[in-house]
Design a protein that fits this description.
CATH architecture of the largest domain: Orthogonal Bundle
Number of domains: 2
Protein name: Calcium/calmodulin-dependent protein kinase type 1
Strand order of the largest sheet: 3-4-5-7-6
Shape: globular
Number of strands: 11
CATH superfamily of the largest domain: Transferase(Phosphotransferase) domain 1
Number of helices: 14
Helix content: 40-55%
InterPro entries: Kinase-like_dom_sf, Prot_kinase_dom, Protein_kinase_ATP_BS, Ser/Thr_kinase_AS
Order of helices and strands: EEHEEEHHEEHHEEEEHHHHHHHHH
Pfam families: Pkinase (PF00069)
Structural class: alpha+beta
Low-confidence stretches: 6-16, 18-22, 313-317, 335-365
CATH class of the largest domain: Mainly Alpha
Mean pLDDT: 78
Distance between the termini: 19 Å
CATH topology of the largest domain: Transferase(Phosphotransferase), domain 1
Family: Belongs to the protein kinase superfamily. CAMK Ser/Thr protein kinase family. CaMK subfamily.
Catalytic activity: L-seryl-[protein] + ATP = O-phospho-L-seryl-[protein] + ADP + H(+); L-threonyl-[protein] + ATP = O-phospho-L-threonyl-[protein] + ADP + H(+)
Length: about 375
Amino acid sequence: MMPLFGKKDSTKKSKKDGKEQEKSSPSLEDKFDMKDVLGTGAFSQVRLAQSKEDPTMMYAIKIIDKKALKGKEESLENEIKVLRRLQHPNIVQLLEVYEDKTRVYLVMELVTGGELFDRIVEKGSYTEKDAADLMRQVLEAVDYMHEQGVVHRDLKPENLLYYCADEDSKIMISDFGLSKMEDSGIMATACGTPGYVAPEVLAQKPYGKAVDVWSIGVISYILLCGYPPFYDENDANLFAQILKGEFEFDSPYWDDISDSAKDFIRQLMCVDVEKRYTCKQALQHPWIAGNAASDKNIHGTVSEQLKKNFAKSRWRQLMHAIAMVHKMQRLALSSSNSMDIDEKKCSTIEEAEEVVDEGSQLSLV
């Protein structure tokens, strides 16, 4: 990897006969064939990439424009530092980093299963047990993060993605752009997404890992009713609700939800940071660890509310394209001729590209 943002790296160059010679290491182009644009952001573009060594392997490469990033280099370095520290089955993995004069390239695991809410809406049946299983995976990943001294600071449903299209696919935490190492100083910056932000962040008090637990509480609430616990068109009113921790379990939406689920949410969305559960405590709660979660089908009411309260996801536009990626992988696996694979892949990629709206926003990391 080249040094980020032009910093000196003594391992890369050696002086010989008065001339500087670079040690040769494989470049991005040596290792990957760049394919479709999967999405674009303010400073970056995410592209599908195929391994040259193993054409069955596909990745997401986040390409960051250094010029556009000027003045914000620290946040990228922070994101890379955080991702390098984290290796967990429910966290989208950073695999490699490359750099040239104008861009930084983050090679990430390709996550193709779509967003959390879309999957719930598409399901035929959905129960508290399903929601509890999802939250267990999230809590285990966040507990691991916290043990590594990392606070995510922006946990929200859009950052929870299914690994693949399989019915029993695991859930993945993505987007570590706002993450922070606890040892990098006191955290007091107001950041995150309004409806999911903890009261202590809004109160501009120093805060820590407990902010992630609050966000998990908000997500759990939505998973059981399909609408957010705090909502107001006016941000000042929304923040006032959050600061007081004012939320209800409204009838009829919560009538069929177990008392254990409600207690779990109260322990996570507790304004008093000292009394709020940690991830470890939450994982021990009977709703997660025991048999307290109901198996009554709540799909009808939850999916109806999700459709009403959460705008159509950008992921849905990509569903056909993602199906194509799976088709490509199957073609590659069933073919022994690598030349044949490339031709087939090229044609399916082009088909997929037609489906993807060029302007669609997609966060894969």
